[in-house]
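can u pls check wat happens w/ S-adenosylmethionine
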Amino acid sequence: METVNREQVTAGQAVYSKFTLAIYDALVLGFSCRWLWRCDASLMLEQYDHLASDNHLDVGVGSGYFPDRCYFSSLKPRIALMDLNESSLAYTAKRIARFEPETYQRNVLEDMSVEGQPGFDSVGLNFLLHCVPGSMEYKAAIFRNCLTVMNPGAVLFGATILGQGVEPNRGARKLMAFYNRKGVFSNQQDSAAALEAQLKKYFCNVKVTVEGCVALFSAEKARA
Ligand SMILES: C[S@@+](CC[C@H](N)C(=O)[O-])C[C@H]1O[C@@H](n2cnc3c(N)ncnc32)[C@H](O)[C@@H]1O
């Protein structure tokens, strides 16, 4: 089994500070999504609107753009936030304070335990997988951990930037290489096929579509 060290895991979340989170929406979800990864953030929001339930866990929260902008059908959904980085958690919790979110500081490769009622009906994983180190098989520890906090029939969905099987433009190629050197991204081995294969090991109704350099995915926890 491959080895991933703590420094690699730390590097995947270290860049998110109060300062970078303040410019994240414009820089990452605005500029980079549209012009470099060629997948408009509105597509990710559409998926979020469609699949997030009123009993929802957001994992790898960043600036909290998606839970903030999402249309939840209840005025008072149960929202839980999970991230390794304290700044991401604090920034997002403040942004969606109206929902009184639960917060959990976790390295989700290792532990996704929650207090009280564990079962969620949906889990969002937007732009997390390309930040965590290792092969897709290694990253699938996150899928197994998600299963432990999902109700039967619950949906897992998200998006991730791929490093294999896509055709990045010049700017995207340069930025992806830079981020991989710095450990901000670890996606050089990530392909849509590898993502789909790992999801299929643990979930049913797996769907993976590729838009530009981004794989959008969804899957369900079996009911039986
Ligand atoms: C690129 S941001 C994604 C933000 C948001 N979901 C979005 O789509 O805009 C990645 C987030 O994943 C978190 N993260 C990275 N590695 C993690 C790990 N091993 N465990 C938990 N969170 C992690 C980072 O701290 C950061 O908040």
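Residues 42-220 form a domain with the Rossmann fold fold (CATH 3.40.50.150).
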